């Protein structure tokens, strides 16, 4: 079984063998498409939240879940020292083929590197925590890689809008769900389907509480057009 569905698809696109996109399936009973060209977008094609995050990067940067290296390549072209990190071997291969100088194939939890001034976690990379309970381990690892005066820039979305409203203005959320932003996904590409994996979407207020519990200060930088936002986290003084 192909364990690197994403990497396989990205490599196909990079090498000019683009014939289909990735199909995603989620526990929200939704089938969706991840368009491969979007993963190769330029700065001008990025959402405003991503553009804002890139403009705030300073010092040495760790791009967690770097994918094809689009964010890192933009920073690199600006003279920033950036390291791309991704668990997908294919994604790392693509980012290097595109010219990213420092790219590391590793899970975040296994990565042992220097400390960085900025840790960049875009495209809802906080999802790597998997669940709300997983945030403690996630934040502990990030803090170990963050300089004392450094910053974590991350975006996410409040997906409450995906649940049906009731007559009182509340939402119907299944009883078996610990937190409505905990979702499971699988990906399919060229008739190869991945195992299901957990992914977290987190509303800002919950993120702020979780950050504070883990001795991180959290501030809202900006909100997007559709329940999404950019946050900046720093070591609590």
TrEMBL record:
CDD domains: AdoMet_MTases. This is Methyltransferase domain-containing protein. It comes from marine sediment metagenome. Residues 61-150 form the Methyltransferase domain. It holds the Pfam family Methyltransf_25. Transmembrane segments: none annotated.
């Amino acid at each position: 079984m192909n364990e690197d569905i994403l990497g396989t698809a990205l490599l196909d696109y990079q090498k000019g063998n683009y014939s289909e996109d990735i199909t995603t399936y989620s526990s929200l009973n939704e089938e969706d498409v991840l368009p491969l060209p979007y993963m190769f977008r330029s700065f001008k094609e990025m959402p405003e939240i991503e553009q804002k995050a890139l403009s705030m990067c300073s010092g040495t940067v760790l791009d967690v879940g770097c994918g094809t290296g689009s964010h890192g390549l933009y920073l690199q072209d600006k003279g920033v020292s950036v390291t791309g990190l991704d668990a997908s071997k294919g994604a790392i291969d693509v980012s290097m083929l595109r010219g990213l100088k420092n790219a590391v194939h590793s899970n975040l939890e296994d990565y042992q590197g220097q400390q960085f001034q900025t840790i960049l976690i875009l495209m809802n990379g906080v999802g790597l925590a998997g669940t709300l309970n997983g945030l403690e381990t996630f934040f502990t690892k990030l803090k170990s890689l963050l300089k004392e005066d450094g910053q974590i820039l991350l975006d996410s979305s409040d997906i409450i809008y995906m649940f049906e409203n009731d007559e009182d203005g509340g939402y119907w959320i299944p009883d078996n769900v610990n937190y409505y932003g905990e979702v499971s996904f699988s990906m399919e590409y060229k008739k190869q389907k991945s195992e299901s994996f957990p992914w977290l979407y987190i509303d800002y207020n919950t993120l702020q509480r979780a950050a504070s519990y883990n001795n991180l200060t959290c501030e809202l930088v900006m909100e997007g057009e559709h329940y999404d936002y950019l946050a900046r986290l720093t070591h609590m003084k």
